[in-house]
Amino acid sequence: MDKLRVTGGTPLHGSVHISGAKNSALPAMAASLLTADEVTLENLPLVNDIFTMRRLLRELGVKVDFEADHSARLRAEKILSDEAPYDLVKTMRASVLVLGPLLARTGHARVSLPGGCAIGARPINMHIKGFEKLGTIERTEHGYLEAKAERLAGSEIIFDRITVTGTENLMMAGTLAAGCTVLQNAACEPEVVDLAEMLIKMGAKIEGAGTPTITIEGVHALKGTSHRIIPDRIEAGTFLVAGAITNGELELLDANPSHLASVIEKLRDTGVHIETGPGRITVRGGDIRPADVVTKEYPGFATDMQAQYMALMTQANGTSVIHENIFENRFMHASELLRMGADIKIDGSRAIVTGKTQLTGANVIASDLRASASLIIAGLVADGFTVIDRVYHLDRGYEKIEEKLRAAGAQIERLK
Ligand code: EPU
User: Fold this and answer.
1) How many Cβ atoms from other residues are within 10 Å of residue 329's Cβ?
2) Is 341 in contact with 406 (CB distance < 8 Å)?
3) Taking the mean position of all CA atoms in its chain, how far away is CA 372?
4) How far is the CA of 381 from the centre of ligand 1 (A)?
5) Whose CA is nearest to atom 43 of ligand 1?
């Protein structure tokens, strides 16, 4: 298993290109199942989750060809299988995103139920309840959800709480349902809006994406399209924190500052200098002040930035409180940061971080994607070197992160 070795103490300088958003690319790829025509996607991040989705789509009969320029052509002329098998769903929960498109296109789907994961139980009960509302008959057997519907029938779905992939799954299903589907308490994330824009280009009738009420008027068929995936706001946020914590100066290119408004505002509260322009963000470090944060659904501060922010707060002069509101177990990185010398107390869903502590390099274990990023960030300012184990988590969602960091001056290497 690969490891990363980070030697701390070098401020980051230079420019970093931000890749396409993994969490936008995954539903966009799944949406190719909705049409027999060819769909072209541009700006795909070349990360392992995207390759897992490619494998899944190929098993379902989709022809998927990746080009050298981060684009791919996908063609689901015939659906050959309607099953998302256990080995793929357990590798990547976002595999459940094929449920909506499969049901809408073929009226049948069999999807392995994802179990819990490192950051929480993460049930898909709200997806299931939503499909029931659209007239699907479902049963669970041998760990699989089997769903059938002659043709989905539009309905009003009120989510008990906001779910990103739940909104995406049901929005895709609604595009081919008979009549009108209204999603209430829908997720407003930029990735949901990106998917809606792609579906509209395919001929779907969708209004309200980006607001809590999305209305979808079902149509009989969708056509092919070409779509460019939005920049990855979490990758951009991760580099902003890396630039800030090392007291460096970084310019992020091909980013979308408006998707990062709450992260930028919070970093400014901590004394970090940030400037934005069309497609670019610059960050310059300084003395870091503590600032409390509460993770929330978009446009709030993203849970996917919480671990990186915690690493930053270990370097703030004073105490900050980080409240994790979305997932019940997303503080696994705290115990690894403690091993590096951080002062963090966990109290239920709150982490109390007291800085500034001189971190020291240690052997640490990455528990999930964003936790891995926070350990790299901590390693960048730690005394000596930090060896991060289980970096396969990182490879699921960050494209060439060590190359990008190295180009900005970081001392980081992959140990095979
Ligand atoms: N939830 C339920 N029932 C459901 C669905 C969700 O109880 O049917 C709960 C979850 O357990 C969680 C909360 O609702 O406590 C929100 O979960 P959500 O469904 O929004 O999460 P997700 O769609 O599974 C996506 C991202 C995550 C990101 C979350 C929150 C993708 C592929 N994944 O997950 O990204 O953390 O939204 O913003 O879009 C990551 O990239 O590292 C990552 C984990």
Assistant:
1) 16
2) no
3) 14
4) 30
5) 304
Report the topology of domain 3-19+231-415: UDP-n-acetylglucosamine1-carboxyvinyl-transferase; Chain (3.65.10)
Q: Is 211 exposed, middle or buried (0-12, 13-18, 19+ CB in 10 A)?
A: exposed
Residue 161, ligand 1, Cβ within 6 A: yes
Q: Measuring CA to CA, how many Å separate 197 from each of 49, 294, 367, 386?
A: 22, 29, 34, 42
| CATH classification (class only), 22-228 | alpha beta
Give yes or no for a contact between 308 and 376, defined as CB atoms under 8 angstroms apart. Answer: no
What pLDDT, in 10s, does the model give residues 80-122?
A: 999 999 999 999 999 999 999 999 999 999 999 987 778 888 8
Residue 23, ligand 1, Cβ within 6 A: yes
Q: What is the pTM of this model?
A: 0.98
Largest CA distance in the chain: 62
The answer to whether the CB of 124 is under 6 A from ligand 1 is yes
Separation of CA 283 and ligand 1 centre (Å) = 29
- 166 CA distance to ligand 1 middle (Å): 8
Residues tagged active-site? 117
Tokens matching residue 310: 């915690």
Same fold, 3-19+231-415 and 22-228: yes
Residue 163 Cβ contacting ligand 1 at under 6 Å? yes
> Which atom of ligand 1 is nearest to 166's Cα?
19
For residue 208, which phi and psi values (nearest 5 degrees)?
Answer: 95, 0
Q: Where are the domains of the chain?
A: 3-19+231-415, 22-228
Q: How large a percentage of the chain has pLDDT more than 70?
A: 100
Per-residue pLDDT of the chain (416 residues; tens, 9 = 90+): 899 999 999 999 999 999 999 999 999 999 999 999 999 999 999 999 999 999 999 999 999 999 999 999 999 999 999 999 999 999 999 999 999 999 999 999 999 998 777 888 888 999 999 999 999 999 999 999 999 998 999 999 999 999 999 999 999 999 999 999 999 999 999 999 999 999 999 999 999 999 999 999 999 999 999 999 999 999 999 999 999 999 999 999 999 999 999 999 999 999 999 999 999 999 999 899 999 999 999 999 999 999 999 999 999 999 999 999 999 989 999 999 999 999 999 999 999 999 999 999 999 999 999 999 999 999 999 999 999 999 999 999 999 999 999 999 999 999 98
If you measure from the C-alpha of residue 164 to the centroid of ligand 1, how many angstroms do you get, rounded to a whole number?
6
